[in-house]
Amino acid sequence: MRETAPAVKAMVFDVFGTVVDWRSSIIAEGRRLGRERRIKINWAAFTNAWRAGYRPAMVRVRSGELPWTSIDELHRVILDGLLKQFGIAGLDEPGIAHLNRAWHRLKPWPDARAGLARLKRGFVIATLSNGNVALLTNMAKAAGLPWDCILSAELFRHYKPDPETYLGAARLLGVAPGELMMVAAHKDDLFAAKACGLRTAFVPRPREYGPEVRADVKRERAFDVHAHDFNDLADQLLGRRRAATRRAKRR
């Protein structure tokens, strides 16, 4: 007889790319700065380069080459190099700090707020991002994201995909790994969560890296749920919950 999987009690979400459109948001911030300071560069290329430095910087922390360093601090290190690379001069320290905090002001995908609000009715919902707590909190405030809880790699001093992040989230939320669902647009994040015993939901964001990059949106049998967006995810999960409740009442 097939063992029944435990019911999902809580959901944690990757944020950059899954909940918020980081690329369009940073490009818009850069273009605004360019108009104000008469900086004429390719802001799309600048944004792509800033994001491209993100993973290698985290690898240096995960490998022990660097001590624990927050994403805000890593973003600033990358930004300092990009200012030289793109020949951006004349920004004072407050201006550079404001630009670095553009990651605190990212805009959500169109379905994010409504979909999260619906999911919150049936589940505890929280972030599980490599972004630091201040960044995620400020972003939630600015973007109107209705989290029950902000969980960050900073709390565990381990960046995803280290197991400590996924298992730490389950521990802090008081649920078993199998009662926690990881939601992400990135398959590597979901495979790492699955290896720790979490349930998984794949919500592809084909436009994350812009129109010229083809994202991997192929369905994977390994994942528990595939959804077009957060509203579709809510339809599927809340529908399953209602069906389970009806079955229980008939017994």
Description:
With 251 residues, this protein is of the alpha/beta class. The chain has two domains: 10-20 and 106-250, HAD superfamily/HAD-like (Rossmann fold); 23-105, Putative phosphatase, domain 2 (DNA polymerase, domain 1, Orthogonal Bundle), CATH 1.10.150. 49% of the residues lie in helices and 8% in strands. The protein has eleven helices and five strands; from the N terminus they run βααααααβαααβαββα. The protein has helices spanning 22-37, 43-52, 54-62, 71-85, 93-100, 112-120, 133-143, 153-156, 163-173, 187-195, 230-250, and strands at 10-13, 124-127, 180-184, 199-202, 225-226. It has a five-stranded parallel β-sheet, with helices on both faces. The longest helix is centred in the C-terminal third of the chain and has 21 residues, at 230-250. The chain is globular. The two termini are 19 Å apart. The mean pLDDT is 94.
